[in-house]
Amino acid sequence: METPEAIGQVPMPTFIPIDDPADPRVSGYLDVRERDLVGRQGRFVAEGEVVLRALLSQSRCEVESLFVSDRRVTSLERLLATAPATVPVYVAPQAVMDQTAGFPPHRGVLALGRRPPAPSPAGLLGALPPAALVLALVGIANHDNVGGIFRNAAAFGASAILLDRASCDPLYRKAIRVSVGASLLMPFTRIDDPLELLAVLNKAGFDLLGLSPRGREPLASVRRQARAALILGPEGAGLPEAILSRTRSVRIPMANGFDSLNVATASGIALYRLSQGLG
Question: Are 171 and 43 in contact (CB under 8 A)?
Fold first, then answer.
């Protein structure tokens, strides 16, 4: 008998039908938005086809299960076929999926994943190549901004991201979605104290570039060293002076004295400039 591969068909996982929002097999997907706020004890929810593709193909994270609307199964056949055979694929009518999640999931696709162990900051930086560009986030509490920064970091070849404890979780569902899966791919870790964060980067040989409207050096004139760390702070207050004063402070010049850019937008401009080569 010919196998599915031999006749050009895609081998499909076993689908598990769900017709009750209270089915314990999909309890990890109950009330997604409310549980976003309190955490999932080492798990996270990924949403949307693009994010699922990143999770299944390149992610450092383990996939625990998939939850798909029955109206999406046919269009997702090839993608679902890449899931490990041990991963259950739950399929439900859209109305049941909406009731389970507590909202209409983006494009009818959800996945439950497990967080990888967080590397030590020194270990993460020490494993990077001699020439590396990293980011450090200080007090960035907006999930859209963190997701956008991770997306830019992946697009411009950054090696890793460090966050202080005041910055939001890159594996929060909305941050993952805004990052189009980049927060599942980009190595990151946390350090409680922003000053300790700078000390760890400095010890690992990174040139510290603090991005701020108050920066002394125009971004276009920056001569990047082999190991460079772009330090970003929240919109409005920006980087605290205690942080900025310990870096080479740089700015993005703007027209007519305007000095306000969304921090994710600013990160993209700075990362593009810094990714263009050394010196």
Answer: no
Question: 215 vs 108, 147, 249, 259, 265, CA distance in Å?
Answer: 45, 24, 4, 11, 17
User: For the chain, how many residues are written?
Assistant: 279
**Degrees to nearest 5, angle at CA 254 with 250 and 260:** 80
For 219-277, what is each residue's pLDDT tens digit?
999 999 999 999 999 987 789 999 999 999 999 998 887 767 899 999 999 999 999 97
Report the CATH architecture of 15-114: 2-Layer Sandwich (3.30)
Residue ranges of the chain that CATH labels 3.30.1330.30: 15-114
CA–CA gap between residue 142 and residue 172 (Å, rounded):
11
Which strands form 109-114's sheet, in the order they lie side by side? 15-17, 89-92, 62-69, 109-114, 43-47
d(CA 49, CA 55): 10
Residue type, 17: P
Gap between the Cα atoms of 132 and 135, Å rounded: 10
Q: Please, what is the average pLDDT of the chain?
A: 90
**Tokens representing residue 64 in the block:** 């625990």
Q: Which CATH class is domain 121-274?
A: alpha beta
Domain(s) of CATH 3.40.1280.10: residues in the chain: 121-274
**Residue 114, token pair as written in the block:** 């497990």
* Spatial contact of 162 and 121, defined as CB atoms under 8 Å apart: yes
First to last CA, the chain: 62
pLDDT of the residue at 6: 42
Give the residue carrying structure tokens 């400039």.
273
Strand residue runs (E) in the chain: 15-17, 43-47, 62-69, 89-92, 109-114, 132-137, 160-164, 188-191, 207-211, 217-218, 227-232, 248-251
